[in-house]
Amino acid sequence: MSIPLRMDEAVGEKADTSCNRNQSVYNLTMASKDKAAAGPGRPREFDIDEVVCDAMKVFQTRGYAGTSLVDLIGGTGLTRGSLYKAFKDKRTLFLAALDRYMTAGTDNLRADLATGSPLGAIRKALTQIARSSACELGQRGCLAVASATELASKDKQIREKIGRGFSRVQSLLADAVRRGQATGEIRSRRDPEALSRFLLCTMEGMVVLGKTGRTAKEMSEIVDVALEAFK
Question: What's the CATH number where 154 sits?
Fold first, then answer.
């Protein structure tokens, strides 16, 4: 989700050291295998999950409409025939990539919020997104936000898929807020659901703002201001 979602380093590539454990990080286990026609790209037996992750990076960089079959062939290393055999069409591959993106982001956020104090974990999640949004990886932005902006108004399936993803993120944040309120670490008595929506908007907003080339200091200041709501 930047669904937010934590994004540490891009799949299949080494992140800049200043961006480690930040945006677009997916520590995915590549397991599923499939067969495809032999060609000049990937070998006959290739990893479907790895292909989805490679396609995810292409869609994240170019958007759905801006991604051509040629882009996907170049990004995945598959031949035209292998892509169509495995995914039927561009939309099917895009939906698989979007699912992977949102699932990975939610899983990473869940892991971050489960460690340390609730408020400390929230600060950590915000700080990771702020840092990544201020570096080169941040220029890719959030696939969920970009897809919502581009497609949600005209594609009900994608709108509902992204909405469910955002709801899962918000639920994780609300649970963290409740834990913090229960221990007294979070003094604000505001509704946890309202605070979690505010956090979600802040996280995704930082990802969008980062695409315009903001500095790490500017992004860090947003985190400091946001955390004032929890005092």
Answer: 1.10.357.10
What domain count does the chain have? 1
Question: Which residues have C-beta within 8 Å of that of residue 163, sequence separation ≥ 6?
Answer: none
β-bridge mates for residue 45, sequence order: 35
> Quick check: is 7 in a domain?
no
Backbone angles phi, psi at 139, to 5 degrees: -65, -20
Q: pLDDT tens digits for 168-227?
A: 999 999 999 999 999 999 998 999 999 999 999 999 999 999 999 899 999 999 999 999
165 neighbors 1 (Cβ within 8 angstroms): yes
Asked if the structure places residue 99 within a domain, the reply is yes
Q: Tell me which residue range forms the domain holding 58.
A: 17-230
To the question of pTM greater than 0.85 for the whole model, the response is: no
| Distances, alpha carbon 179 to alpha carbons 123, 163, 168, 186, in Å | 14, 24, 17, 8
The answer as to whether 116 is a domain residue is yes
pLDDT digits (tens, 9 = 90+) for 156-168: 999 999 999 999 9
Residue 12 forms part of a structural domain:
no
Q: Transcribe 188-215 into DSSP letters.
A: --S-HHHHHHHHHHHHHHHHHHHTT---
Q: Which residue has the tokens 């005092």?
A: 231
